[in-house]
Specification:
mainly alpha, 5 helices, 130 residues, flat, single chain
């Protein structure tokens, strides 16, 4: 697990830098800088608007006496997606938009649900209550 984290936090930023330098070579540094700023602003706006909608749905479910499980997963996706969109880079921006936009987020949630169900059925997932 530690080796994966080290790779993730060193390899991904290195790939992002290479991509940004390649884009700058083709389009110029001004466009590349504008692209990074624009995706950061768009990501912040999307994360904020989606986050507000999700918080409203969580409040509504709580006021009805229901646990907001689905909306908590949405909130987690938007939180992670927003953080990725604020991080300069092309791969992180693509992943961030996938997690923030409702249609693509729903596809990711379906995938995660199937993966977690498979882990639980096979006994590879443990649930801890603290």
């Amino acid at each position: 697990m530690f080796a994966r984290l080290v790779l993730m936090f060193t390899l991904i930023p290195l790939i992002e830098l290479i991509l940004l330098f390649r884009i700058a070579e083709v389009t110029g540094w001004e466009f590349t800088l504008a692209l990074v700023v624009a995706t950061g602003l768009a990501g912040a706006y999307l994360a904020k608007s989606q986050g507000r909608q999700i918080l409203g749905k969580i409040r509504a479910e709580l006021s009805e006496g229901r646990l907001p499980g689905e909306e908590l997963v949405n909130g987690l996706c938007v939180l992670v997606g927003g953080a990725l969109l604020l991080t300069p880079g092309i791969l992180t921006d693509i992943t961030g938009f996938i997690l923030v936009i409702p249609f693509t987020r729903n596809l990711i949630k379906k995938y995660l649900r199937k993966k977690f169900e498979g882990m639980i059925r096979s006994g590879r997932a443990d649930i801890y209550y603290g």
